[in-house]
Amino acid sequence: MGKHIATLACAALAALCLGAAPASAQSANDLFSSTDLQRVDLWLNSADWAKLKAEFQTSTYYPADLTWNGQTVRNTGIRSRGRGSRSGTKPGLRVDFDRYATGQTFLGLKSFILDNGTQDASGIHEPVAAAFYARLGIPVSREIHTRLYVNNEYAGVYVIVESVDKDLLARVFGAIGDDTQNDGHLYEYKWNDDWRFTNLGTSLEPYKLRFEATTHETENDEQLYRRIETLVRLTNESTASGLAGAIGSIFDIPAFIRYVAAQNFLADTDGFLGAFGLNNFYLYRLENSEVHTLISWDSDNTFYSTDLSINEGWSGNPLMEKLMSVSEYQSLYLTEVARTAQLAEADDWLNTEIIRQVQRIDTAMKEDPAKPFSNSSYEGKAGDMLNFARARIAFVKCELERGAGNTSCRQ
User: Fold this and answer.
1) Residue 29: which residues within 8 A CB-CB, separation 6 or more?
2) Number of structural domains, the chain?
3) 72 in a domain, yes or no?
4) I need a surface site. Which of 36, 120, 235, 240 has the fewest CB within 10 A?
5) DSSP letter, residue 215
6) CA nearest 169: which of 106, 110, 85, 82?
């Protein structure tokens, strides 16, 4: 397998070594649209870096300078981040450019994430998923691999992830009528327990615990959370046949079905229909609107298996169960799964993207001194990814033809 990956990497070797060429007018588009492995340098007090690593479970900020492609932004703030991915050996980092300098941006960005990839030995789950979701028209952050150097010492392969903030909202949702969609109500879902959209009662505390407001934070709880409570309550109180009438004006049902169809196609076990309840998404209530929709986030646990059924995760989730018991919405779901498979297969897109990303990071991953897995583990998981696309497409097409759960599709 190592020889196979090394062969694949040869085509990209020059790009991996040379990196991106400096540009006179640089923007976030230059960063995220590059085909090259990037290089980011952080410069900070060595004692601060040691303390950040030693106290990685805290979220204390430290000042640092950041350089990318010949351009430096000074006095930015960095801190440890993540839940299960927090690490004292290879810290995941949040980079806030305006932490110490009000209004400061870099490439037009207020912040970004440096994802340490400690939960994905292949190194490419999340960036491939993000690129594919963008192809499908699903709201998602832009992502790009980078070598990270701290005080000129190689710290490993990271993924630069665009923050879900007002700038992303404007980029993804554009304008609806005269309203630029950058000032609606945005919430990051915080996993707390195995919750599957069941009724939590009329108290707002359970919703406040799970949905962290990242815009309009100064509003009171009634303004922030009552509409979410209403959405969940109506979902649970309504009959399947009456669900669309009850929530259709406050929840984008077609967008939701497209979202979960894509997640199930990519065999995501830690998304909205996750094995341990809802996880890894943002909820956005559109500006000057009552409509809620979802934004994809953190796809490390995609690509679980090539033969995960397309109806995985339906059971126990009243929103999904009720929608799928209505023929109109089950038909729409199957149509979206078929569309997803078609866009994965067209021009061999998904397979080509996986190969491209493995090629891009192969040498850097093997040289990564802080990754929490061996090179043989990396090569094994990268090899699984190289085999995923065509096998998954074939399995999904079989289930679409013969029915979800048909055992003959696994032969």
Assistant:
1) none
2) 1
3) no
4) 240
5) S
6) 110
